[in-house]
Design brief:
Length: 197
């Protein structure tokens, strides 16, 4: 019989199968009482996506704020990705019904590349950390990836702290970007901050 490695604190299966609640990515309860879940984006999310990619959030990104046409095209592309071969998985970050961010996993098996963004007024509550925790469970569990990579602008310390909290290790600076990796063996499905109640 195959042995399932279990998390020492929670007893949850490590890196196998999907979430217990039957969704693709599960949900996560936040320390402020917020329930964070990942969901697909729809056309109705266009105004919310624009607020997420507003001037306050894109300072460290190689892009400007998102206009209406771009937001519409973005949501359409995400929908096409979702119905296609799925080498890109993009989810909205839902906090109690409020779309506060977007997380994305680009897959080039057995590796993935993670990125994320939150609406500026949703920073500082742990939402990104919890959303990334859910996406990692999907990456290492449902998709069975062996490593997930991420990078950020070197001055983007908030982004670095999100990655460190969930177990990423800094590997190098490539040009103007700080690079990180999290291997499946080192992945903790319940990092301390994500389980804080
Ligand atoms: C990167 C980004 C998502 C980080 O947002 P964030 O709000 O700092 O991250 P979280 O949502 O995980 O919140 C963590 C912060 O909330 C605090 N916090 C407050 N209450 C909390 C709670 N109940 N639970 C957990 N954390 C809590 C944490 O202490 C932490 O603050 P600290 O880093 O100063 O210690 C955000 O800055 C962003 O969208 N930036 C623009 C896009 C970007 O740069 N993306 C990265 C490149 S891919």
């Amino acid at each position: 019989m195959a042995r399932v490695a279990r998390h020492p604190r929670t007893g949850a299966p490590r890196g196998t199968g999907g979430p217990a609640d039957g969704s693709r990515t599960g949900r996560c309860s936040g320390g402020t009482g917020h329930v964070i879940s990942l969901r697909d984006l729809t056309r109705a999310d266009v105004p919310a996506v624009r607020l997420i990619y507003d001037v306050g959030s894109v300072a460290f990104l190689p892009r400007g704020p998102m206009g209406e046409d771009e937001a519409l095209a973005y949501v359409r592309t995400v929908g096409r990705d979702a119905s296609g071969a799925r080498s890109v998985h993009t989810f909205g970050v839902d906090a109690d019904g409020d779309l506060v961010g977007v997380v994305r996993l680009r897959v080039s098996a057995p590796h993935g590349h993670l990125s994320y963004i939150l609406r500026r007024d949703a920073w500082g509550h742990g939402h990104a950390t919890r959303a990334v925790t859910l996406l990692l469970a999907f990456a290492f569990g449902s998709l069975g990836l062996s490593a997930v990579h991420a990078k950020h602008h070197p001055d983007n310390e908030r982004s670095g702290r999100v990655l460190s909290r969930v177990g990423f290790v800094r590997t190098a600076a490539a040009g103007r970007e700080s690079c990180y990796v999290l291997c499946r063996e080192a992945y903790d499905p319940c990092p301390p901050i994500a389980g804080r109640e």
